[in-house]
Design goal:
signal, AB_hydrolase_1, hydrolase activity, hydrolase, Rossmann fold, 243 residues, 6 strands, Alpha/beta hydrolase, 12 helices, alpha/beta
Length: 243
Amino acid sequence: MRALSLALFLLATPASADCVVLLHGLARSEASLMPMAQALEGAGFRTVNQPYPSTSAPIPDLAGFVDEGIAECALAPGEKVHFVTHSMGGILVRVLLADHRPADLGRVVMLAPPNQGSELVDALGTIPVFDWVNGPAGQQLGTGEASVPRALPHPDYPLGIIAGNQSLNPVYSSLIPGPDDGKVSVASTMVDGMTAHLTLPATHTFLMMNPLAMRQTILFLREGRFDASLTYAQAVEALILQD
């Protein structure tokens, strides 16, 4: 009976696991990262899908919400906090980690981050409706003197970046030099100091829901690397089996 009670206790007690803070992009919500959060949980991570009012404040103010996500993780001794971000969410993490870094920092995966600023913001930022849709943070994502991403120090932590090279908006893509995902150029996602970079056939809007992106994210958080040979079918199978 004592052995049975112990077994039931162990089954009811969640195992210790690293925590992943997820941060969505500009003018999006945490709902956009729910599939990614579910994939991470299936792979054994705890997750905090951190919301923040992306269109209501400048980027430095929004970075404070990253701290809220870290606190929500409530790490136990030996656990690490990782980050998975989409678009502007990656810039918020860079802002926070430039100021102070958690002692238990793990790895960071950024999906389609405008690390060099966005040429699309340069082209459309003067249109009045741009401010109405994107708020003050949107104006800080350009490539000029007001660019927050270009003013940040280079990352010196394990950082994997996944870019997309397919677009749903040919008009936007015509304003962006080189391969792009409809919002951000592949070149703009890169930054000195990154550990690994991978480009997938995906769009900016749906990159975080792509099975390949999900599986590659899990691989980087576990091992600090991407696998360029991984196929779409293999990614789907791995997510189903959750190995």
